[in-house]
Design a protein that fits this description.
By secondary structure, the chain is an alpha+beta fold. Helix content is about 20%, strand content about 25%. The strands form 3 sheets. Strands 5, 6, 7, 8, 9, 10, 13, 14, 15 and 16 form a 10-stranded mixed beta sheet that branches. It is elongated.
Length: about 325
């Protein structure tokens, strides 16, 4: 990358003006206590020419500060280390600020490059988006969605935001709520599936409920049932691979279209009928609580209509 292009990139810095009661403290203490930076992020910034500045001048983290001075630290990525190749592609951005994005992923798209898809993943499209917008950022996914799953996905723009958001996972601060169509009717209609999940001994892809698996909990609520199918609202308390799909199959209600844990029926839908509908999280720098929702994609909306599971407005009344 040419120097001029690098200079035009948008650099993310976190800034703190030293208050009187903070005078005399070391830079390292302020970075950790006030800006909540981890030791890893601080060590990385220390080696950058403009990584840690006090009144615009580079300083050691042992430096003691004075009231009114301005401390700033560069948290965005000066180098791209992920190896993800920028490739133009569609991105549905639901929310964006200096630290994070929330995307609405289409079904059939991988989040990470791999498995023969090294140029058509969310990572590829996002790196191209950063390049075109002049945003200094590498690929920092916070969680993942299966290839067939549609809906909301949180991505951080820098390592600090990624660390903070990953720390929220599996806590009430980071809520992932899904909509799914299953075959059958859960009994009871509302409850929690608490069943450990581990790798299947008969498949390199599949997971299964097994005593020696990792603790796994999924809350569910039946929104509508008709003709041997049900519309469910589900919330993850843990984040195991294929968790919702495994748990629903475990209670005898596999997802429609799930060839791995149920029966593939392309007359119904060509992928597991699972949609990441609502995402709630704490913005990793400002502390603001964010909430986003993504409408059902056409294939799942059409499936509901064909099955007659729910009138058009009943889903939103069931929040």
């Amino acid at each position: 990358m040419e120097g001029g292009e690098r200079e035009r990139r948008s650099v993310r810095r976190m800034v703190l003006t030293v208050r009187p009661e903070q005078a005399g403290q070391k830079v390292d203490a302020l970075l950790r206590r006030e800006l909540h930076l981890s030791g890893t992020v601080i060590r990385r910034a220390k080696w950058l020419e403009d990584g840690i500045l006090l009144d615009g001048e580079r300083v050691f983290v042992s430096r003691r500060v004075e009231a009114g001075q301005v401390l700033s630290v560069r948290v965005s990525d000066p180098e791209i280390r992920s190896g993800v190749v920028p490739v133009p592609g569609p991105l549905d951005i639901v929310y964006e600020d200096e630290d994070i994005l929330i995307l609405n992923k289409a079904p059939g798209v991988l989040v990470h490059p791999g498995g023969g898809h090294f140029e058509d993943s969310i990572g590829n499209y996002l790196m191209d988006y950063y390049r075109r917008r002049g945003i200094e950022a590498d690929f920092h996914p916070v969680h993942r969605l299966d290839k067939g799953t549609s809906g909301l996905l949180a991505v951080a723009k820098h390592p600090h935001a990624q660390e903070r958001l990953k720390g929220q996972l599996h806590t009430p601060d980071f809520r992932r709520i899904y909509l799914a169509v299953c075959l059958g009717r859960p009994s009871p209609e509302e409850g929690t599936v608490d069943a450990p999940i581990g790798r299947s001994e008969t498949s390199i892809l599949a997971r299964e409920v097994r005593p020696d698996g990792q603790p796994s909990r999924t809350r569910y609520r039946t929104l509508s049932s008709r003709g041997g199918a049900s519309l469910l609202q589900l919330e993850l308390e843990t984040g195991r691979t294929h968790q919702i799909r495994v748990h629903m199959a475990h209670i005898g209600c596999p997802l429609a279209g799930d060839h791995l844990y149920g029966e593939e029926d392309r007359a119904l839908i060509g992928r597991p009928a699972l949609h990441s509908w609502r995402l709630e999280l704490i913005q990793p720098v400002t502390g603001e609580r964010l909430r986003a929702e993504a409408p059902l994609p056409p294939d799942m909306a059409g499936l509901l209509a064909r099955l007659g599971l729910v009138p058009e407005d009943a889903l939103w009344e069931g929040r």
